[in-house]
């Protein structure tokens, strides 16, 4: 049997956490031969700790063979000590009285603290996935606060946007999601995100030849970008099981590989495709041997450039706000 991998999940008692933990316990994230030491980091409030205790009781009751241990703590040092994978899900939701900069500020404090704890205590090869919104900028903050860890290891989740897009494309063309290759969502997990079919093949044919341009521009792009709001409208709560599934997919592929198949991950830019260095940006990647690589050599069209630029502007504006907070 392999040595257990220590996985930290923050906000584990929230709604995404409630779907995520059981999938991790069942082996969906790291494979059926990989035991896990699961640690839930919760806020130090009576209600959070009580909720985490309830989740732990249910995990115990599943008797998952791969769950070597389950702990919950509000202590950052205990949680991140030797952690090899961190799923940073817990974040402050936007309330009615908050504007966007209040939200950035409240979340910046959370990710500054967690970034520092990762820097001080985690395994040097830790893989970090930020789910809590604003996910791209929160991942940027955590990375900036962890200067001793490879910057590459701080990623944010755009896989839900990717998965949502695959189903829209499959339903439109009558194909299977597995027939779709070379698709990605560029940019920010926000309303400027850009689901891009320029290079996409569906059952071996060019997607642009199969899909009417007006459907792509007027339906597909806005539908993917506003899917989160549509779920809230329909369900009365934000996406939870599908977000947890996307987090599982993201880490699964990063650890176990995709071969030459593209996936979308938000990763720190090294200046690829004119994206300013350091922004945590959704890009097409392939994963092999526990590492990811941004797909190289794409010739961007003017349409792609224009949409990528909108996302650059959105993320640069957020970066300007949080850089001041990190420097304090
Ligand atoms: P919930 O509000 O249900 O859960 C959030 C949990 O995080 C709560 O248990 C909360 O505790 C906890 N929490 C808050 N701050 C901290 C902290 N500093 N340390 C540890 N735990 C903390 O939210 P969801 O599970 O629905 O969503 C979580 C995040 O994921 C949100 O930011 C949401 O916007 C984001 N999201 C991202 C998606 C993406 O594609 N990137 C998709 C869907 C959601 P308490 O109750 O005590 O405050």
Task: Name its key features.
328 residues; alpha/beta; Rossmann fold; L-2-Hydroxyisocaproate Dehydrogenase, Chain A, domain 2; 2 domains; 6-stranded parallel beta sheet; 3-stranded antiparallel beta sheet; 11 helices; 14 strands; 19% strand; binds NADPH dihydro-nicotinamide-adenine-dinucleotide phosphate; EC 1.1.1.37; Lactate/malate_DH_C; L-lactate/malate_DH; tricarboxylic acid cycle
Give an overview in words.
This is Malate dehydrogenase. It is an enzyme of class 1 (oxidoreductase). Residues 5-154 form the Lactate/malate dehydrogenase N-terminal domain. GO terms for molecular function: L-malate dehydrogenase (NAD+) activity. The protein has 328 residues and is of the alpha/beta class. The chain folds into two domains: 5-156, 3-Layer(aba) Sandwich (Rossmann fold); 158-316, Lactate dehydrogenase/glycoside hydrolase, family 4, C-terminal (L-2-Hydroxyisocaproate Dehydrogenase, Chain A, domain 2, Alpha-Beta Complex), CATH 3.90.110. It has eleven helices and 14 strands. The protein has helices spanning 15-26, 46-62, 76-80, 100-121, 135-144, 159-173, 207-210, 213-225, 227-235, 241-256, 302-327, and strands spanning 5-10, 36-41, 67-73, 85-88, 127-130, 154-156, 180-181, 184-186, 194-196, 201-202, 205-206, 263-268, 280-288, 291-294. It has a six-stranded parallel sheet. The chain has a three-stranded antiparallel sheet with strand order 7-10-11. Strand 10 (201-202) and strand 11 form a beta hairpin. Helix 1 (15-26) crosses helix 10 (241-256), helix 4 packs across helix 11 and helix 5 packs across helix 11. The longest helix has 26 residues, at 302-327. The radius of gyration is 19 Å and the shape is globular. It binds NADPH dihydro-nicotinamide-adenine-dinucleotide phosphate.
């Amino acid at each position: 049997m392999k040595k257990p991998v220590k996985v930290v999940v923050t906000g584990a008692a929230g709604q995404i956490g409630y779907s995520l933990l059981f999938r991790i316990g069942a082996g969906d994230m790291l494979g059926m031969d990989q035991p896990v030491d699961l640690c839930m980091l919760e806020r130090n409030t009576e209600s959070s700790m009580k909720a985490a205790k309830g989740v732990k009781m249910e995990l115990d009751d599943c008797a998952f063979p791969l769950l070597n241990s389950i702990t919950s703590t509000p202590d950052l040092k205990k949680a991140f000590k030797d952690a090899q994978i961190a799923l940073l899900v817990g974040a402050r939701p936007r309330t009615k009285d908050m504007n966007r900069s209040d939200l950035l500020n409240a979340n910046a404090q959370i990710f500054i603290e967690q970034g520092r704890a990762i820097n001080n205590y985690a395994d040097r090869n830790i893989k970090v996935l930020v789910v809590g919104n604003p996910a791209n900028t929160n991942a940027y903050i955590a990375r900036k606060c962890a200067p001793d860890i490879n910057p590459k290891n701080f990623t944010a989740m755009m896989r839900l946007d990717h998965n949502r897009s695959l189903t829209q494309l499959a339903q439109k063309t009558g194909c299977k999601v597995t027939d779709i290759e070379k698709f990605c969502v560029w940019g920010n997990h926000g309303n400027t995100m850009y689901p891009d079919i320029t290079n996409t093949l569906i059952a071996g044919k060019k997607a642009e030849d199969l899909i009417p341009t007006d459907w792509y521009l007027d339906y597909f792009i806005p539908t993917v970008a506003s899917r989160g709001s549509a779920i809230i409208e329909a369900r009365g709560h934000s996406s939870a099981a599908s977000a947890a599934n996307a987090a599982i997919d993201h880490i699964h592929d990063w650890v176990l590989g995709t071969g030459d198949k593209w996936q979308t991950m938000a990763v720190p830019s090294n200046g690829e495709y004119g994206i300013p260095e350091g922004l945590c940006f959704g890009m097409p990647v392939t994963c092999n041997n526990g590492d990811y690589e941004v797909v190289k050599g794409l010739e961007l069209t003017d349409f792609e450039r224009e949409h990528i630029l909108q996302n650059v502007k959105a993320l640069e504006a957020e970066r300007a706000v949080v850089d001041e907070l990190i420097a304090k």
